[in-house]
Design brief:
- The protein is an alpha+beta fold.
- About 35% of the residues lie in helices and about 20% in strands.
- Strand 5 (about 100) and strand 6 form a beta hairpin.
- About 30% of the residues are buried.
Length: about 375
């Protein structure tokens, strides 16, 4: 043993459980599917597409060892299953109904995606199944801050709870803002922070089966709503950006995030949010191009701040925009190229408002409906 201190081991076969296993598996899987004529998308490296001469396509989406096969060429998909069976030990689970904690339901009207079982398991684990439900995930009168004077709580439990809520927010944009806020206090959580987390769980008790609904539509446009809550954080007075993107009328991506710098005006905060929304739109457009579904019209970005829209459209240099020059030129360039057009929307119609601040029940319920969220388990 002592004579081998200066030697290392070479990994000849990747074993399950090692750090190298996921990378080795994905490289092997990628090599195999590329051999079958699939192309790895540059916009999302876990997405593989194969186009056929008759205009049909087959798509593979992979997450570690969980795989979704879809497309409109059933014969080729069946053939692909047989080919993958020869290379790997796989199990065909049939039509997609459950994937990574997400439940998928189909009807003639569209597809619903929810995490009802995940919510109920979370409530059961935390002893909240019998709690009193609430109608909104966050109290509009409460502003959380790092040093609030309340007693500290179990850091590990707080982090586990927030981590599970972050995963749940993949299908629940209605809790996107509240989860974004509580995740800012992972290092030193206090009783007030835990109370905010418990409030989210009480809201989930009210709506365990709520999820996204992707309906059939003839609309062929990308619309993005961007908004910002100027100086909303009482800790450092940074603003919160929020955007949500709709592809063909259905919500596909959204984000709520505190901005990295302090904005000196509401127009500047909105401007930074607009830049983030445009970046998301460019990525979605690139993804559609790889699927060979080109857009016929420019993407539309909706903003409720007239000053920010004016700065975006006006090529004249403003002293007030010196500190956001990069974002200003970026947005101006995309507008001039015809990739985007920026339109004004009233604040009461700003869908992204739900991702930037806590709202009262009436406004909150109105915006969750605009996001396309439904509860398929509701008998009503």
């Amino acid at each position: 043993m002592t004579s081998n201190f200066n030697k290392v081991c070479r990994l000849r076969k990747s074993l399950y459980g090692l750090k190298q296993s996921p990378r080795a598996w994905f490289e092997r899987f990628t090599k195999v599917v590329k051999g079958y004529g699939f192309v790895q998308c540059q916009s999302d490296h876990t997405l593989f597409v194969k186009h056929f001469p008759e205009g049909k396509l087959a798509i593979i989406i992979v997450y570690v060892d969980d795989i979704i096969l879809t497309g409109d060429h059933e014969e080729k998909i069946d053939l692909l299953k047989k080919l993958l069976t020869k290379e790997f030990e796989i199990k065909d689970l049939g039509n997609l109904k459950y994937f990574l904690g997400m439940e998928i339901a189909r009807s003639k009207k569209g597809i619903a995606v929810s995490q009802r079982k995940y919510v109920l398991d979370l409530l059961n684990e935390t002893g909240m199944l019998g709690c009193k439900p609430t109608e909104t995930p966050m109290d509009t009168t409460v502003k959380l801050e790092e040093s609030d004077g309340s007693a500290p709580v179990d850091k590990g439990r707080y982090q586990r709870l927030v981590g599970k809520l972050i995963y749940l927010s993949h299908t629940r944009p209605d809790i996107g803002f509240s989860v974004s806020v509580v995740s800012q206090f992972m290092n030193n959580p206090t009783e007030k922070h835990m109370t905010a987390v418990i409030r989210i769980l009480r809201y989930l008790k009210m709506t365990p089966g709520k999820g996204l609904f992707f309906q059939r539509t003839t609309k062929k446009e990308i619309e993005i709503f961007s908004d910002a809550d100027w100086a909303g954080s009482v800790t450092d007075r940074r603003s919160t950006s929020g955007y949500c993107s709709f592809v063909w009328g259905n919500l596909v991506t959204w984000r709520s995030k505190k901005q990295s710098v302090v904005a000196r005006s509401s127009a500047e905060a909105e401007f930074r949010a607009m830049a983030q929304g445009i970046c998301e739109g460019i990525w979605l457009n690139r993804l559609l191009e790889e699927l060979r579904v080109p857009l016929k019209h420019p993407m539309v970005l909706y903003c409720d701040n007239q000053a920010a829209i004016s700065i975006a459209k006006n090529p004249v240099h403003h002293d007030r925009t010196k500190h956001v020059e990069i974002d200003r030129h970026f947005i101006k360039e995309k507008i001039e190229e015809g990739v985007f057009k920026v339109s004004y929307t009233p604040t009461n119609c700003q869908t992204a408002d739900i991702l930037t601040k806590a709202l009262a029940r009436v406004n909150f319920e109105d915006l969750t409906e605009k996001l396309g969220m439904i509860n398929i388990y509701n008998a009503a």
